[in-house]
Amino acid sequence: MGEFLPGGEGSLGSRMMLQQGNVMRSSRGCSVHLETFGCQMNVLDSQLVRGQLQALGYRFVDDWKTADVVLYNTCSVREHAENKVYSRLGELALHKRERPEVIVGVIGCMAERDGLDMARRFPQVDVLCGPGELDKIPLLIDNVLKTQLADRGGMGGVRHALQANTHRRSQTLAAAEDRLEMLDLSRSFSPEEFRGSAYVRITRGCNKFCSFCVVPYTRGAEVHRPPDSIVEECKRLVDAGVVEITLLGQTVNHYQYDHGAAVTVGGVAQPQVGGVVGLRTPRANRRVTTFARLLARVHEEVPGVQRLRFVTSYPRDFGDDVLEVMAEHPRVCRYLHLPVQSGSDRVLKLMNRGYSVGEYEGLLSRARVMLPDVQVASDVICGFPTETEEDHRATCELLRRARFKNCFIFKYSSRPGTAAERLADDVPEEVKRLRNHDLLKVQSQVSAEVHREFVGKTARVFVESISEKSARESPAAGGAVTLGWDPGSPAPGSPGRTRGALPMASGKAPGNPETTRTQLVGRTDGDLIVVFDGDPRLVGTIVEVQIERSMPLTLFGRLVHEPVSA
Ligand code: SAH
Ligand code: F3S
Q1: What is the pLDDT of residues 238-279, one digit of tens each?
Q2: How many domains, the chain?
Q3: Cβ distance 273 to 177 under 8 Å?
Q4: Which residues line the pocket of ligand 1, CB cutoff 6 A?
């Protein structure tokens, strides 16, 4: 568990309640700017942090220059993501010369990975909080506020809550999980939080230890949430107007909750630790909820979910049971995000992925036989240590054969503490760049073909937002969106989109639908992006669109029906 530097808070637990009153007094009216970097998991974490702080009286603002508290929810997956945060911290160092009382917090994976080194290198940082300690943020901020009051702007040292390397030990893990579960359970269900779409966490952490990846170190061991809590959360989201739910985990298909081993506190089942310290293989007589069963349960018990999606799937042990549930449950989206990482068996082995190219393609064929309309997206890393031209060509060929609707292609970035860090990062940057370019070119051709097949068809589309183009040209259009949304967050399903988001709803009442047509953006059941003109009030609903033309990553069409749902 984390410790607290100067200020000597000591153990936290029971103190939280005692301090709640003080937290409220000093925080009321304080303005916070929260910027999110990285994956969907971070988007959800930011929503939870925001909900906690709002409940305590903090106000959220878009302009960081006007904020009393600036928080960055960070990502460590690649060096590039970290560099963006370092450059923001540089801006803040200058800003703090003018306004030394501004509180700067780095939360999420970078805080956990860099630990106190970050505080030493960046004295402008007041608060550090790892992803496993997010429930402590209000107290950490409050602590800085109080020291400042006593000390008129003199900084009392960084406040931090980090798990360091204790988060794979069973007792500390169990205690941390109980608190984190409370954070998920206490999320806000206020309809303004959602634009018809919400993420629901099913698993925290990861136990796969792919050799290039920092996530198992920053997010800790794999822990599965109780199925009843997940179903309940989905029901409450639907009651709050949500029509699309995305179940989140690093490897969702490895979800497994063993009811025989479940621990109950106050009548409520507790989250369950996966592989490292818990039971991975249940005994025959035990009742286990697998991912397939969980998906079916949410579909059956929450009929108001119009679209049920999940990310990310792991190519190893992806059972036919999940494909069967997808085939039998029409509201489960025909979409798999199934990162392959490389088209070379030799490289896959060095990456510790646990499957071969043949096995991956076997899964693709099974999925396409059982779900003829399924779309698959993937991730690839180019320039992994020792990757040869031959390995690279094998990846290009795999992309041609696999026919992904899109594929995120990353240049390998050596991450401190990972197994691959011990291999020399021996593919020169220029070669990585050329390989990245080759792969993008191949994928772009494939994506263009996949998208072209939709021209002339009608697609069911969940409307996510007003296009950036429309929002720029007519910011007032944002005012017509009745389902508000966090402008600091990526659009649902668009990993990495963090800046340049649309303006927040300004409260302007929508006019006559005939006169407020705007360019809208949505996604099909197979996750293809669709752009079309429509009433901004359609954001957060499902509509039918006649597809008229395509580009490699976008379909363009015409609205044929008013909302299918809602
Ligand atoms: N749980 C997900 C991935 C999380 S990280 C999964 O199993 O796929 C998201 C993506 O970032 C990965 O799929 C990988 O393609 C990429 N990535 C992770 N670590 C990386 C590194 N060190 N360098 C480059 N890309 C990396
Ligand atoms: Fe990372 Fe592999 Fe887990 S990519 S998040 S260690 S599945």
Answers
A1: 999 999 999 999 999 999 998 877 777 777 778 887 743 334
A2: 4
A3: yes
A4: 77-78, 212-213, 215, 250-251, 312, 314, 339, 341, 379, 381, 410, 412-413, 415
